[in-house]
Structures are given as C-alpha cells and as structure tokens.
Design goal:
The protein is α+β, with helices and mostly antiparallel strands and 423 residues long. It contains 6 helices and 23 strands.
Length: 423
C-alpha cells in the first residue's frame, strides 16, 4: 500500500496554492467539515480574505449512481488553471442496505448527530431517486466546465490535497460482489423484503472504521480483532472517481471505469498526483466522488475505506498538440496518470488478462512516443523494471496500472517530463 498523508497534502498545497492551504490549516482537525456553502461558486476561506472556487454536494450538484454525460449541464464554469475545492460524500452509511439514513446508521456506531454531515442527511432525506439493485452506489459531485476545453484537448487534473471531513469511514462487502462472490459475505442471501426500511434483510456486511491521529500527527485507521485487540493501518487518501463527461446522451453507470476515467480506483493517484483526461465534450465537464481514505490493490472486499473527503484540484486545459500532453498525436484516447516518481499507464477491461494487455500496450506506446525507446526494447524494459498492479477487480471493468519509474529516464533528452505544457 502506498503511503500518502494529510501532512504531505498540506505541504503540497503550501507550495502551489496558498489560499487553499488556509482551508486545510484551519479545518484539518476541526471535524466534521460541514459544507462551506449551499451553492457552487466562489467562497471566502474562513479566517482569510482569500476566495476559492467551491462545489458542494447537494441535490442540484450530484448524480447518484451515474456519471455526467454530454447532456449534463455543468454546475460551475471556471477558467483554465483554476483551483477548485469539492465537498464530496462517501455513499457508505447513505445507501439502502444501511437504511438511507446516515443519522440512524452512524448513530448506531456511537456517532452523535452533530458529527454526521449535513449534506448527506439532506440528500438521503430528499426525493432523489436511487435504485439500490440497478444504480451505482456513488454520489458524484459536479460537473465543472473548464473554459476553452474542446474535444481533442486534454484536462490536466492535479490533486493538491484531500482532507477527511469526518473521523470515520466504512468498508463494505455485499452479496454477489467483490473478489469472492458467493463465498463472502458469509451470511444468508438477501431476503425478498430487503429495503431501506428493512436494511438488515440485505444481510450485507459493513465494517465501521474510525481514524485517529498518531503521535507523529498522521492519520491511521483502526480495526479490532475478534477478541478486541486493536489493528491499525496507515491511510493514503485519494479520489476513486475522477473523470470527464462521456460523449453520449445515454446514462453512464458509475461503477465501470472507461476512456472518460470515472471509477478508476487507482490508489497511486493520491495527493500530489496528476491525471490527464481526454476532453470528449465542450468544457470537459470534470467531476469527482467515491472518496477513499485507504485502499489496497485489488479492493477485494468490494469497497475501500470509504470516507467523505474535501479534495482540492487544479484543473488546466492542454490544447490539442500541447507538448505537455503525453502522446505523440497531441491528444489522448484514455486517461494517464503521473506521480512524483512514476508515470502511471492504465489498462481497463472486463477480463483481467485483457486489462493487463491493455496496460502493457499503453506502456509501450508511452515509452516509444514520449521517451524514445523502440518497441522491442520498451517491452523488455517493462518486463525487467516496471510493476503492473491490479487497481481493482470489483468494478465490472477491471483495472491494471503500470508504474514506469521516472528516475530511469533521467538522461533522456527532450523526453516527456509532465512540465512540457505551454504556459
């Protein structure tokens, strides 16, 4: 598991965007982080004179179970290079097999009402439709249009920070899902009368998981063994869903990822990382959701440590042909990631073997187009020097991502650096 911390998030934000940092510094431990406003727009950072772009999660600004498409109107438009703060919601504790009542669900775990997020209460208490059997579980916030973005361009999306909004999350395993469907959960199958009014009849398993600060000031998650002994593990916050609107007017289910990004669930794309997304509709229409405090490769139970989060992004339009785009064609046909130490190539397919092939082919493309390798040498390099990791096996379309180490190419002149974009 990759270790990324809130401390790192704050340091990065300090380096790149001082006004947003004020949000993090003042709210990091003043949980819960309730919404800053009830509508998208510019808000003043508490305790400062700085303004930031902000998108809350409301009935008007989210989709539940589906991703924005070509027909979805943006909830906010921002200039290229803008920094945008989102208040995102985890679906855990809000969906029907948990009663669609976060006050009752989290109250049953000992959480007082004032520690439950108001936006989650408002959405679950609204008439917003959600079919637990048919729809995806994710509450997706946005989209945000980026001025000047046109099909063929690329959005460069930098995750500057990700701060937990509450000191707790949930990890769930549901019948028919996860890496071991039919084996887990080891409970009776859902009853015919299972519903939000009778959530126990689903017989799904959710593990409530609080977080706390270590002596070093880092967040850790806490579980217990059967006899009550504590088990702790480090957190590494990231956004499971990051994407652009698909070029279709048909509904786009929130679970399987695709060429538009979406539910990629790549735990390496945490704080300090960049995602390059192909623009498919005017404005690009970026959205995010499915916030995770920690996730192992594979995400085998079904969910990660699902945890409502306040992420901050810087979103920049790279016009087609911009040298900052990681493709010889000057555009992209699928997402690509970047961290401080690696380029992250992404393979997606319902068949895990085919997802591996997809990631390998994309890695060869990147190495030949952007770093000057011939194809046989690129293939040999990947075999000897790169790791291919299983992103997740639980989203219908499975994911494998390749990790290409930047340091190995330090002597390559005119190679892609991620800093090549036109100013």
């Amino acid at each position: 598991m990759k270790l990324r911390t809130i401390t790192l998030a704050t340091a990065l934000a300090l380096a790149v965007f001082a006004p947003a940092t004020a949000v993090f510094a003042q709210t990091a431990d003043k949980l819960p982080l309730q919404p800053l406003a009830d509508k998208p727009g510019r808000v003043v950072v508490p305790g400062t004179k700085h303004e930031v772009y902000y998108v809350p999660s409301t009935v008007e600004t989210v989709t539940w179970g589906y991703l924005p498409n070509a027909a979805t109107k943006p909830v906010l438009s921002v200039p290229s290079g803008a920094t945008v703060v989102f208040d995102t919601l985890s679906h855990e504790g809000l969906v029907e097999d948990q009663g669609r009542n976060p006050l009752a669900y989290f109250g049953s775990k000992g959480i007082p009402a004032n520690m439950v997020l108001k936006d989650g209460i408002a959405i679950t208490g609204s008439s917003m439709a959600h079919d637990f059997a048919k729809d995806g579980p994710h509450i997706v916030t946005g989209p945000v249009a980026i001025d000047g973005a046109e099909p063929g361009d690329v959005l460069k999306v930098e995750l500057l920070s990700a701060v937990p909004r509450v000191p707790y999350g949930v990890i769930s395993n549901r019948h028919g899902k996860g890496a071991l469907p039919g084996e887990f959960p080891e409970t009776p199958k859902p009853a015919a009368d299972a519903s939000a009014a009778n959530p126990g009849a689903y017989n799904n398993v959710s593990v409530f998981t609080p977080i706390r600060r270590t002596k070093a000031g880092k967040w850790e998650a806490v579980m217990k063994t059967a006899n009550g002994t504590e088990v702790t593990f480090p957190t590494a916050p990231f956004m499971g869903v990051m994407g652009v609107a698909a070029d279709t007017t048909k509904p786009v289910h929130s679970v399987p990822p695709g060429l538009y990004g979406g539910n990629m669930d790549i735990n390496d794309l945490g704080v300090g990382s960049t995602v390059y997304l192909p623009v498919l509709v005017k404005g690009g229409n970026f959205y995010t959701g499915d916030p995770h405090m920690a996730q192992g490769d594979g995400e085998v139970a079904l969910t990660a440590l699902e945890h409502s989060m306040r992420p901050t992004f810087r979103i920049t339009v790279l016009k087609k042909g911009d040298p900052g785009i990681p493709s010889r064609s000057g555009s992209l046909t699928k997402p690509l990631g970047e961290t401080a130490d690696h380029w992250v190539t992404i393979g997606l397919n319902p068949d895990l073997d085919e997802a591996m092939k997809d990631a390998t082919r994309e890695s060869i493309r990147f190495l030949t187009e952007m770093l000057g390798m011939d194809r046989p040498t690129a293939f040999a390099y990947l075999s000897a020097a790169s790791d291919f990791q299983v992103s997740q096996v639980v989203d219908g379309t499975k994911g494998v991502h390749g990790m290409i180490r930047k340091a190995d190419f330090s002597k390559v002149k005119n190679g892609f650096t991620g800093k090549n974009a036109k100013k």
